[in-house]
Design brief:
This protein has eleven helices and eight strands. It is of the alpha/beta class. The protein has a single domain, classed as Aldolase class I (TIM Barrel), CATH 3.20.20.70. Strands 1-2-3-4-5-6-7-8 form an eight-stranded parallel beta barrel, surrounded by eight helices. Strand 5, helix 6 and strand 6 form a beta-alpha-beta unit. The protein binds pyridoxine-5'-phosphate (PXP). Pyridoxine-5'-phosphate (PXP) binds next to strand 8 and helix 10. The site of pyridoxine-5'-phosphate (PXP) has 19 residues, from strand 8 and helix 10.
Length: about 240
């Protein structure tokens, strides 16, 4: 099981004072040294945290694998084609949202997504879709020709331990099995932390987690190296 670290919120701290620190690229390199096997960032339409200069610096320095989360817009496609991350993860984006609120509705947007995904893949970029644990949505992802999907663990992560959470976990499990049986690489993420990650890490079809907020928050207390190492230690045996 691999860990990809989302470093957006190092940029959020920087932007809180419109300053030049902390430097997200430095956080990315330290995360790699501590065992992260990928670096993820979300460039938003409003550039509230990550900006183009960060993407360029990541591209020049990240040694593992760079994954840009972005909306499926012309503006974002141009940025990806120009900078060439290893992976583009297509996510829905609502300007007022605090964080990504759900998976991309690929069924409703199938027509527009087809050529968008094709163009990215033709340039050598792997395409991922952030998708809710819904079997029909996952089948449409497969139809669209993506390389992998990232199953949205947000609903599970928002629930307290109990019946409802077990149901949400089971949905993730079934979604992972189904996606895997279709030949898709399965990643998962959103809202995962040091406490809730273990039951999801036990799902064998999931090969990688994308985790951001909880690691950045813990970094503020123990430093990024320890924060990443602790998360790697939790998931590495799966
Ligand atoms: N995956 C996707 C698609 C996301 O949009 C985010 C948040 O940027 C994450 C994973 C990471 O979520 P969190 O910050 O809650 O760990």
């Amino acid at each position: 099981m691999k860990l990809a670290v989302n470093v957006d919120h190092f940029a959020t701290i920087r932007e809180a004072r419109q300053s030049n620190e902390p430097e997200p690229v430095l956080a990315a390199l330290l995360a790699e040294q501590a065992g992260a096997e990928g670096i993820v960032c979300h460039i938003r339409g409003d550039r509230r945290h990550i900006k183009e200069r960060d993407l360029k610096l990541f591209r020049e320095t990240v040694k593992t694998k760079l994954n840009f989360e972005m909306a499926a817009t012309e503006e974002m496609k141009k940025i990806a084609l120009d900078i060439q991350p290893e992976i583009v993860s297509l996510v829905p984006e609502r300007p007022e949202e605090l964080t990504t609120e759900g998976g991309l509705d690929v069924i409703s947007n199938e027509k527009e997504l087809g050529p968008h995904i094709k163009e990215l893949r033709n340039s050598g970029i792997k395409v991922s879709i952030f998708v809710d644990p819904n079997l029909k949505q996952i089948e449409t992802c497969k139809k669209l020709g993506v390389d992998l999907i990232e199953i949205n663990t947000g609903k599970y992560a928002d629930l307290k331990p109990g019946e409802e959470r077990l149901k949400a976990l089971d949905e993730i499990k079934k979604a992972a099995e189904h996606g895997h049986s279709l030949g898709l690489e399965i990643h998962a993420g959103h809202g995962l932390d040091y406490k809730n990650v273990l039951p999801v890490a036990a799902i064998p079809e999931i090969t990688e987690f994308s985790i951001g907020f909880s690691i950045v928050a813990r970094s503020a207390i123990v430093g990024i190296e320890s924060a990443v190492k602790e998360m790697v230690a939790l998931i590495e045996n799966y």
